[in-house]
Amino acid sequence: MIFGVLKDIKEGENRVMCTPMEVASIIGSGHTVLAQKDCGKTSGFTNEAYEKVGAEIVERAEDMYARCDMIVKVKEFEKSEFNLIRENQIILGCIHPAGHPEEVDAILKSKCIAFTAEDCHRYGSPNCEAAGKQGALFGLESMLTINGGKGKFIGGFAGAPGMNVLILGGGIVGQGALSVLYALGASVTVMDINVGVLRMLSDRYNQKINTMFCTKETIASILPQTDMVINAVKWPKQRKDFLIDKEMLKLMEPGSVLVDISNDDPGAIESSHETHHDDPRYIVNGVVHYCVSNIPGAVAYSTSVAYAAEMLPAIMSIINDGVDEACVKDGFVRRSLTAYKGYLTHEETSGIQGRPWIRPEDILKIADRKLDFAPSATTTKSTNFYTR
């Protein structure tokens, strides 16, 4: 198989899906690898490093798409790439299909085989850990007086108290933020709807953090004493309400900070909208908002190394075993199948966008096989199946 590593072109994106280390493994399995020129440059990997392990450097994206049987990138496929995707070509990236209908249109029209990387992580994505940890640091940067914040230091000084931080969501993103903020001396409250998660975190931190069941009312009760909010809740896209609305921001002191790491559209925070690294902040009702959508791109070397290593087994399974067998052997690969030769195979996208879909195991005709189990990647359900 001819395997291709694309250069990501999303604004502010610096990561690469495969480092030279993964490329060496793929070539060692008997495949040819094309690496687009400078695909790893901003994450610290030179063209020469890819060539040294046996990759061919290709300058133009058009040539990458024309020659590769499978092609990978970190983020979504952009409009300039839509017409380059070929029938039967395998594509892999963080497609986020439910929130990108035009991208889905192009994928279905091309009749390619698409996998969305964010759904294939058995142990959680390194990008989530990176987003939580680095997002907390960007929140502290936003708190600086020179950035419009109230100028409060996280752990305080002699005679001056430290920060009170509220983290919404106790998953991998929230836990990443908590580890940084707690270590630096903040007083932290974590909210979640899973009491088991709250109990686990309380025990992990020796009862030195506060935990609360997450509702709009509990959030409002502590916002007046909160200096910074970190949102790490994956909000169901079909919901039209908010955990924090614009009026609730007035409960916070001017110069307080809200970091929306999840940054869905629509999401849990009414006042959030996507920003980029070159202009990351804005103010609503006196609260400084930091809403960069690809926070891990700011620590591109570390996230690329961690992410590429975790993605390698899925990639190797697809290129060595084929799509069908990869989906039999690994339920997380199966649930990440987004489109198959013109058919939508992604339930959340069907539910959100009102499109018909077919289950991956049905389109691949593997439903009668012994399939590796994986839980659903979404709480969104759809019975809008294709009719024949």
Describe this structure in words.
With 388 residues, this protein is an alpha/beta fold. Helices cover 33% and strands 15% of the residues. The strands form two sheets. An eight-stranded mixed β-sheet has the order 3-2-1-4-5-6-14-15, sandwiched between helices. α5 (101-110) links the parallel β5 and β6 (113-116). α10 packs across α11 (323-329). It is globular and about 65 Å long. The model has no long low-confidence stretch (mean pLDDT 96).
Q: Can you count the beta strands?
A: 15
Low-confidence segments:
none
What fold name goes in the CATH topology slot of the largest domain? Answer: Rossmann fold
Task: Specify the CATH architecture of the largest domain.
Answer: 3-Layer(aba) Sandwich
Provide a short characterization of the protein structure:
The protein is α/β, with parallel strands linked by helices and 388 residues long. The chain is built from 14 helices and 15 strands. It folds into two domains: 2-123 and 299-363, Rossmann fold; 128-290, Rossmann fold, CATH 3.40.50.
